[in-house]
Every structure is written in structure tokens, then in C-alpha cells.
Amino acid sequence: MSLPLEVPTRQLIVQKFGGSSVADAAGIKRVAQRVVDTQRAGNEVVVVVSAMGDTTDELLDLAGEVAESAPAREMDMLLSAGERISMALLAMAINGLGAHAQSFTGSQAGMITDGIHGKARIIDVDPHRVRTALDKGNIAIVAGFQGMSRESNDITTLGRGGSDTTAVALAAALNADVCEIYTDVDGVYTADPRVVASAKKIDTISSEEMLELAASGAKILHLRCVEYARRFGVPLHVRSSFSQHEGTWVLPSPEDKSTVSEGVALEQPIISGVAHDRSEAKVTVVGVPDIPGKAAEIFQVIADAHSNIDMIVQNVSTHGRGATDISFTLPIVEGADALTALKAAQDRIGFEDIEYNAEIGKLSLIGAGMRSHPGVSATFFRALSDAGINIDMISTSEIRISVVTRADLLDDAVRAIHSAFGLDAETEATVYGGTGR
Amino acid sequence: MSLPLEVPTRQLIVQKFGGSSVADAAGIKRVAQRVVDTQRAGNEVVVVVSAMGDTTDELLDLAGEVAESAPAREMDMLLSAGERISMALLAMAINGLGAHAQSFTGSQAGMITDGIHGKARIIDVDPHRVRTALDKGNIAIVAGFQGMSRESNDITTLGRGGSDTTAVALAAALNADVCEIYTDVDGVYTADPRVVASAKKIDTISSEEMLELAASGAKILHLRCVEYARRFGVPLHVRSSFSQHEGTWVLPSPEDKSTVSEGVALEQPIISGVAHDRSEAKVTVVGVPDIPGKAAEIFQVIADAHSNIDMIVQNVSTHGRGATDISFTLPIVEGADALTALKAAQDRIGFEDIEYNAEIGKLSLIGAGMRSHPGVSATFFRALSDAGINIDMISTSEIRISVVTRADLLDDAVRAIHSAFGLDAETEATVYGGTGR
């Protein structure tokens, strides 16, 4: 009697490592070993790297020393040196382990972007040089965060979340089997483990839910990378560069969940997780004339100041007939500009006053299952009420409920909601270092 | 009576700054000011920069930490990050002064090379992006030392003297009026001012003589850059980045000397200067069979070991009939490989022994005027004899006499020759810091 031989499937795997994973020579060598192990297990491997640990900050410091402000084109030229260093060193470390690696800049890897320096968008990916390197049996290392402008052929950078987006875009263009995002935690958790010690790692989550989690302040994956993965159907695997454990699979459509692991239940859980965010402030425009078009005028002023509004609430009038209050949240960093713009428009729009509060927190409960479970809202608000937490603003989508509370009550609120939906694990989560770009 | 207005001619000037000139933010800002001043005087300016001071060494250290040896392709990718940083910072500093600058990598500036990583040769220059930047009134900053391989599109570096060569190649391709090489001394001196305190700055020198000076160990300009400038007729102006003084003009043909300054005498001086070199060692192959072809066999062995032979002397036989000694000099760094190769071929070639001596120095006297002044050799050897210095080897060209002496007598020899040919100045030369790549 003979056992059937299990033939491992050859996969094309894109692995992305952030700046904290390649912060020094030891980190680079550890990453190199993991990459080589992945290839030796029979896979094709493309690696996307960020700049080493503090490189970006050091370059920004130098820029600040030579001039008060810098042209965006030159800033991109400067910052793109960071990945050039880390990717060449990683290629050397891989070669030192007896495997073969070639590094490619964003431009060489065919990352074609628009011309908006500092936050360019990818408009095309032509990875033929990467494909050729793989065909020759090489590991391809690609600089994250950077590309080349189609119009000007100038070097661009992709802005926040850029390296994750590079990895997903390459995975889509190469038709990769998976895009692995290495980070300093084991995966995506049902809540931030630093706030909720009993938070559980999520094994699989739909990209729709992950999108809501990312938009709601979960820092582990950037919104933009999740959007890209969802649009192009790229399975993401978020995992730790410090362990060999399976992390969290973020899957383009719910049906795909069953393909990952036989052990995963086919039925979705009602709730995926709880996200929180302290980076927003609340603006209340008081005494807005109750005339059609006034709200539009206000939001046009904010848009012209390039601020991104998140939640909006138009209060019931408390000023007698003819006036109302409009509250909204926006990133704290954009608060000053928005207030200046609003004050300049006060006479024209005709409102009475502006109130500004940066001491707020936002809590979001996310779960695709809540679509068909009408009891979720009731449980949610009862839990907050039982914990003595007042709610300032509410906004909902089909798979999300978000509320704004006082900042100092936010952690209590997150723990209360996490428990109320039965998300608590029996063991505590492990948390490692910081995050890169 | 009215004086004629002097209209300054608009020139295209290529300025090259080494790593010590841009070692820190203060240096970059000082260079920026000089570049902007040059543009505001009515000129078009292209700037070639090396990596900042210690950047290259720091990158090499990192490479040594991640792997014992590195593929040459990846080493070039790594090292080319150095100029990317310095050029972007210089562009920022220039923009901070109210002028407009754009930086270009070697590849963007059209520096096309062969594929020999680490010591690539320029095979074509297509500076159309640099030309466009100038046409828009911008200052163009170009990364020195780097290019792109025509065959593979990979990043290459040009090796020693690379940034100077980039500058001259760009100057030739753009038909520039002058290529200014900024360094830490005021120009080319009649001897190394650290050895001969009374050395004089040379105002003009032919590229033919400069070539001999560079080949004879004068470190101020790399042989390769002078060769390139001579071939393409590019006037070089070697000057200090710490002063506004005129430096040394290196002119493609002697007739051009008169175009530079009316004050320069049209008649050439007999002697340009004295160079010295401690970087070579002497190898003597003892007891070589006096049969035709044996010398060729020896030099083929050395060539196969990739060593560059400088001086060669075949001694009068002192071994009785049938055998002779052959001595030659080569760079000390290539000595070990050459000896290994020779020993391996000893039985085949049939020589008796090898002697190796790294304690030698080479002194060279250079002057295009010595062609027509037969008394030069006599004065030269009498001066050495009067100073009590024994001569080990002699080699000559039409415009050069070189001798090998004991290393510890070299400085005395340089001073004796410098005085004997009346090169001593009345005031002492000023010497500044170190040199870049």
C-alpha cells in the first residue's frame, strides 16, 4: 500500500515588508531568510520593501536644513533614495544566502503613476522586467512607495500606505496567488490589542469589511491598499514578520473564504471587529440659516480648503424658527485650515458661531453579518448605555455603526462593545514594535 | 566721449562638485549660492554632484553587514542612492534661493554606459532632458558617477573619477563653453603643495601635459576625465569651491591658451610641474631565459591577472650568458594577484625567482617644452645626483621623465627637482580638506 505523494502547488507570492522589518542589517538578514525559505518551498517570490526604519525621517531632516520648503518633485527624488538602499541591501543579503535576487526601482518595475508628487496614484503597471527576473529563477525585489510619472517621466512617490499599494498593484498585474503584508502584529484583530487585551485575531475577513475597518481607524492596512485589492480581486494575507503563524486573510469576496482553509466555517460571523480613531475633531457650525443650499455652501468652503469630512449630523433646530446647527468631523491636522476658511465665509453664509472640539473619539463596529441581523443596533446602544457612555454623533452603513464619544471614554467604549458582541478571546494578544510607511 | 558697454557673453557652464563640497547642509547651501550666482551672471548652468561626504562609506559598511560579498549590479543600485540624495538636496537649496533647479539621475540625464558594473564606461550621452530644463531657464543638477547600461537598462556606476567624467561627458554632449571642476585646492600646482611648500599654481596647462601629470600620480584630476576632455575638446577649469579665484585651465590644444586670458604668455613654459606617486610597487623577475618571446609570456600572465603595468625595464644580463632580469611597476593593490599568477607560471616560463618591493616612489617631470629643450634630462639627473638620490628605474616620453627611487627619499627628490627647474614660488600654497569620488 502506498500513500499518494502530496505535490505542493507552485505559487506566485508577493511579500511586502515595512520599514520596521528592515530597520537594520539584522532585520534585513531575517527578512532575506524568510524570502529565501519561501522560494525554496517551491514558489516564485516578489518582495516589496519600504525604506529602512528611520531613513525617511533622516532625509526629511536634511531637506529641512537646506531649505525652508522643497519642490515636490525634488522631495520625491530625495525620498525615493530610501527604498533604493533597502532593496539593494536585501538583494545582497538574499544573494549571501545562496539564492539569486535582483532589485528594481518603482520605475524599473513599471509602476506608472500620475504626476501628483508626494501622493501619486498608480495608473498602470507594466512588470515585464519583474516577470523576466522570475522566469530566470530569480527573486525580484521592488521598491515600494515609488513610481514614475507618465507625463514627465519624473520619479513620484505614492504617499501614505504607498508600499502596501505597490505590493497589491504588483500582485494584481502579475496575477499573484497572494499578496502577503508583513507587519509587527500577527494579523487583524477584533479590536486594537493595546486597548482590548482579550482581542482575537481574525482568521478571514472580506475586503468589504476590511475596507470599513481601515476607514474607521484600524491602522493595520491602509484604506487605499484594501480598495485596490478588492477592485482587482487580490487575496491579502496580513501576518507577522516575527513568527511563522498564519495571520489574517482578507478576501475579495465572501465565497473565497472557503478556498483558504477547510477549517473555516462557511457561515460568516455577524461581527468582524471594533475599530477606534482619535485622529478626528468635531466642528459645529452654530445658527445656520434654515434656507436650502446653506449646508452645501458650508461643505463647499470645507472642500475648497482641501479637508476631508467624515461624519455629518444636522441637529434639530434649538434656536427657534429659522436656524439650525450642523456638526461634522474631520482629521485634526486639517482643522486649522477648515476653521480659517469657515470664518472667512461667516458673513456671506450668515451663521452665528463655530465650535471646535478635538477631544473626541470615534468607535466603529463592523460586520457584514449585521445586514441581516436587526438586533445589532439595539445590543450596541444598550452596551454603551450600560457603560455610562454618552453618544455625540452617530453614522451607519449597511455593515458598520460608528459613534463619536468623549475622547477619555473611548477605550472603555471599545471594551464594552467588544465584550457585548462576544469577541473576547481567552488568551491575550501579543503586540510588537512600530509601523513603517 | 562714451565708453563702449561690455556685454557679458552668455555661456553654458558645467560645474562639478565633489563629495567634500557637499558633505553637509552648510556645504550644500554654499554650493547652491555659487551655482545661483553663476546663473544670475547670465549663464546657463549644469551642475554635477557626487554623494555627500561619508555617504558612500556608510553604504559600503551596510553592505558589508548584510552579506560577505555583493553582486556588482546590486552594489551599483545601492551606491547610486548617494548622488540621488545630494542632488535632490542641492536642487532644494537652489530653489530656496529663489532660482529654479531640477535634478536628474544619470539615467535621466542620458548617461548610457556599457554593462560593466562598478567601472562602467560611457558609450553615449543623450542629454535632451537636461537641455530642455536649461531651455526653460532652470538649473540642471545631474548625479555624477552613474549611468544606465545600454543592454540591460540596469543602473551602473563609473568607478574612480566617475563624477569628473560625468561632468566632462555632459559638457561635451551639450557643447558647453567650459567644464569647471571644483576641488579643495586652488588649481593644479607645479608639485603637491603638501610636499613642496613653494609649489606654484599653474594658470594654464595643455591637456596633453595634464594627462601625463594625472598618469604620473597627480591626484587632482583623474586620468580618465582628462582623456575624455582632450578627445572631445572640452576646456576644463580646475578651481576651489572655497574661493572665487581663477584656478587652472586645462586646454585641449596649446593654441587655445591665448583665448583664455590676454595676460597668459603665448610661449609655453618648458616645464609644467612635478608629480609623485607612492601607490606602485616594483616586481623583478630574476633569471629569465634570454629567448625571444619570454618577456611577452611574462606580460601576458600579468595581463591575465588584470594588472596594469606602468614602467618596464629589462636589465642588462648579470647572470652570465642566456638569462636576464625584467623589472616592472604596478599598483600595490594589484601586487598580490600578479605575484600569485607569476608563481603559477614559473616552471612554464623558466625564470629563477621573483622579487617584490612596495617601498618605492615614482617622480615625474612633465613639460611639453622639453621636446625642444635637450638640456632638461641633464639638469634633471644632475639635481637628483646632487641631492644624493639613487635612481632605480627610468622611463621617458616626449614630454615626461619618470624615475623610481626609494620611497623614503621621494619627498626630497620632488623638492630637489622642483627647485632645479625654477618652479618655486615666493609664497606658500594653501591646502584645504580631503577629496571625493
UniProtKB/TrEMBL annotation, chains A, B:
Pathway: Amino-acid biosynthesis; L-lysine biosynthesis via DAP pathway; (S)-tetrahydrodipicolinate from L-aspartate: step 1/4; Amino-acid biosynthesis; L-threonine biosynthesis; L-threonine from L-aspartate: step 1/5; Amino-acid biosynthesis; L-methionine biosynthesis via de novo pathway; L-homoserine from L-aspartate: step 1/3. Keywords: Amino-acid biosynthesis, ATP-binding, Diaminopimelate biosynthesis, Kinase, Lysine biosynthesis, Nucleotide-binding, Transferase. InterPro entries: AceGlu_kinase-like_sf, ACT-like_dom_sf, ACT_Aspartokinase, ACT_dom, AKii-LysC-BS, Asp/Glu/Uridylate_kinase, Asp_kin_monofn, Asp_kinase. GO terms for molecular function: aspartate kinase activity. The keyword Lipid biosynthesis does not apply. Catalyzes the phosphorylation of the beta-carboxyl group of aspartic acid with ATP to yield 4-phospho-L-aspartate, which is involved in the branched biosynthetic pathway leading to the biosynthesis of amino acids lysine, threonine, isoleucine and methionine. This is Aspartokinase. It comes from Sinomonas halotolerans.
